[in-house]
């Protein structure tokens, strides 16, 4: 299927590995020019070169830095002729007990996972509306639908972003101008972050990491962890011409792990 986005320009945040990289790869295959971001310059440049080899017809620009820093966001926006597609993505805050979190911990979580993506949305939507095309996908978490007790910082910040999107996406001056905003909620995907979490859990429990991984995968109805490339493919569809009538939605990709009807 031709997604109708060849030649568009996209910003993809946290694209040096994992789900962000999966999204960048899927968009590159569709002929989308990319401005990619992550904190690590060397890793980011390696991904940029990989994307250029994958599709020599596209332009790929790499801007390293923390997306929570206004200067980094401005550098991203300055590197792109126009933003047709925005993929908001950032690492989540650490787990813990809410009794131990200070105000600074909460502000850091809100800055990274709510306020930074909102700032990029704010910077892009009016231009998208003027041109009559815009796709924004926020990578959040399945914990938005099924909160995890030790991830209270993430639950709060990402739920705040979800509430903001629910109202903003439905503004007629955006939706009627072919600008969509949707959230993509990953469950357990086979990324370095997941493997690191499993290794820490295994060490704490005195178990083998592969054994722990097997138990976690078996608990998912699909019987496995998701692949970053299949996550990227769904993201690319949400950015397509075909998805123009879909906005303000929370799309859950978790292999059936969430047990609810709604």
Question: Could you give the distance between the termini?
Answer: 29 Å
Number of strands: 7
Write out the strand line-up for the largest beta sheet, numbering strands in chain order. Answer: 3-2-1-4-5-6-7
- Which percent range describes the beta-strand content? 5-15%
- What about the largest sheet? 7 strands, parallel
Using only C-alpha atoms, the radius of gyration works out to 18 Å
How would you characterize the overall build of this protein?
- With 262 residues, the chain is α/β, with parallel strands linked by helices.
- 46% of the residues lie in helices and 14% in strands.
- The protein starts with 8 loop residues before the first strand and ends in a 9-residue tail after the last strand.
- The longest helix is centred in the middle third of the chain and has 29 residues, at 103-131.
- The radius of gyration is 18 Å and the shape is globular.
- A seven-stranded parallel β-sheet has the order 3-2-1-4-5-6-7, with helices on both faces.
- It has nine helices and seven strands.
- α1 (18-29) crosses α9 (228-238) and α7 packs across α8.
How are the secondary structure elements laid out?
Elements: E1 9-12, H1 18-29, E2 33-38, H2 41-54, E3 60-64, H3 70-78, E4 85-88, H4 103-131, E5 134-139, H5 152-168, H6 172-175, E6 179-186, H7 192-205, H8 209-218, H9 228-238, E7 250-253
Parallel strand pairs: 1-2, 1-4, 2-3, 4-5, 5-6, 6-7
């Amino acid at each position: 299927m031709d997604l109708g986005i060849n030649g568009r320009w996209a910003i993809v945040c946290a694209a040096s590995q994992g789900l962000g990289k999966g999204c960048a790869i899927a968009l590159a295959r569709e002929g989308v020019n990319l401005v990619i971001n992550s904190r690590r310059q060397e890793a980011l440049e390696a991904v940029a070169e990989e994307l250029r080899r994958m599709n020599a017809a596209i332009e790929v620009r790499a801007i390293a830095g923390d997306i929570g820093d206004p200067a980094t966001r401005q550098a991203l926006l300055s590197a792109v002729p126009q933003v047709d597609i925005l993929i908001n993505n950032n690492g989540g805050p650490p787990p813990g007990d809410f009794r131990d979190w200070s105000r600074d911990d909460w502000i850091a979580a809100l800055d990274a996972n709510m306020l930074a993506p909102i700032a990029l949305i704010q910077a892009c939507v009016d231009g998208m509306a003027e041109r009559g095309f815009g796709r924004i996908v926020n990578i959040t978490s399945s914990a938005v639908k099924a909160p995890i007790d030790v991830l209270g910082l993430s639950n709060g910040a990402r739920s705040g972003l979800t509430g903001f999107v629910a109202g903003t996406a439905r503004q007629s001056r955006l939706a009627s101008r072919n600008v969509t905003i949707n959230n993509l909620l990953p469950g357990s995907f086979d990324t370095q972050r997941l493997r690191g979490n499993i290794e820490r859990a295994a060490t704490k429990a005195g178990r083998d990491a592969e054994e722990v991984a097997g138990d976690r995968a078996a608990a998912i109805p699909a019987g496995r962890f998701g692949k970053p490339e299949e996550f990227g493919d769904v993201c690319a569809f949400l950015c397509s011409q075909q998805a123009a009538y879909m906005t303000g939605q929370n799309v859950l990709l978790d292999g059936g792990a969430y047990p609810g009807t709604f």
